[in-house]
Design brief:
By secondary structure, the protein is mainly beta. It has one helix and twelve strands, in the order H-E-E-E-E-E-E-E-E-E-E-E-E. A hairpin with a 6-residue loop joins strand 2 and strand 3.
């Protein structure tokens, strides 16, 4: 529940408390009957062509040091869950279409010193999220990307193959990735930040 909903709920609850308080101040009268009112709502199915959309569960992730050696320092972490939702009907999906999610990262920069670590030092190992598109024969994750040249530059995370099955439309498919940053042992100390941009194309 977001903050705006929480705030509205608080205002409604507070208003109800004021009404109860005001009512308790009135002189009690004899009750002569009650009447219930049913509150109904009809929620129709969403009309229209639907949509193809990308969401990411979380705005940041932190890498922590792991199996470093005298020559290299290694930092690992996990990409927040990335989900592609397709609410289109089969007839609204263009023939032969296929979607894919690409990831590209910027250089790591320490804001205090302006020192940088080239983006090519970050790699990933994509994987499907269990229960969300897992096992679909036409949904795949991209290949592993080593923390070396060229690094994460327009690399596939998740994609729908161009096949007869892909034209059926609809579905929720999620992926994540194990992240790995490998840098020389003499890398300058600092608090580095990079931006990993995820883009959905069709």
């Amino acid at each position: 529940m977001n903050k705006s909903v929480l705030l509205r709920s608080s205002v409604i609850a507070f208003g109800a408390a004021l009404l109860v308080s005001a009512g308790s101040a009135a002189v009690a009268e004899e009750e002569h009957g009650t009447q219930d009112v049913d509150v109904n709502v009809a929620i129709e199915e969403v009309a229209g062509p639907g949509a193809l959309a990308l969401t990411v569960e979380g705005a940041d992730t932190t890498l922590v040091e792991g199996a470093s050696t005298a020559l290299e320092r290694t930092f690992t972490g996990t990409l927040p869950k990335v989900t592609v939702t397709d609410t289109r009907a089969a007839e609204d999906v263009p023939a032969g279409s296929a979607w894919y999610v690409l990831g590209s990262t910027s250089d790591f920069v320490d804001a205090a010193t302006s020192k940088t670590i080239a983006a090519q030092h970050l790699g990933w190992v994509p994987k499907l999220v269990a229960g969300e598109g897992e096992g679909e024969p036409f949904v795949e994750v991209g290949g592993d990307v080593l923390p070396s040249e060229p690094g994460l530059v327009d690399q596939e995370l998740l994609y729908l193959a161009d096949s007869a099955e892909s034209n059926a439309g609809g579905g929720v498919f999620s992926a994540t990735a194990d992240l790995q940053l490998v840098v020389p042992a003499d890398v300058a100390a600092g608090n580095y930040t990079s931006t990993l941009t995820l883009s959905l194309f069709e």
